[in-house]
Specification:
With 94 residues, this protein is an alpha+beta fold. It has a single domain (3-89), classed as 2-Layer Sandwich (TATA-Binding Protein). The protein is 26% helix and 40% strand. The strands form two sheets. The protein has a six-stranded antiparallel sheet, with helices on one face. Strand 6 (53-58) and strand 7 form a beta hairpin.
């Protein structure tokens, strides 16, 4: 899946991944590993604590990780993307 990683807010230590596809949130909720703590699920986003960091996954295809330095955030975002892709939670856009 094609994606870009942005650092929208350096002071808040957030990093964002945007992809061309969308995320099936209900499927993602079920696909996350047992150590992931689901904080909230709506039609628009899924909030989860994973590897000690808060993540927000949006149906539109955006994933945000908070409270992480840029290098660490990039690794975590790529890991989350790979997990979602492996579990079939991503829908490609034409």
């Amino acid at each position: 899946m094609e994606y870009i990683i942005l650092s929208p807010c350096v002071t808040a230590k957030t990093c964002e991944l945007r992809m061309r596809g969308t995320i099936e949130l209900k499927k993602a909720e079920q696909a996350l590993p047992p150590e992931a703590d689901i904080l909230a699920l709506t039609e628009v986003f899924l909030s989860v604590a994973y590897r000690g960091k808060p993540f927000s996954l949006y149906q539109s295809g955006k994933i945000i990780v908070k409270d992480a330095e840029t290098a660490e955030a990039k690794v975590l975002l790529k890991e989350m993307l790979a997990l979602l892709e492996k579990k079939g939670c991503l829908v490609a856009k034409d």
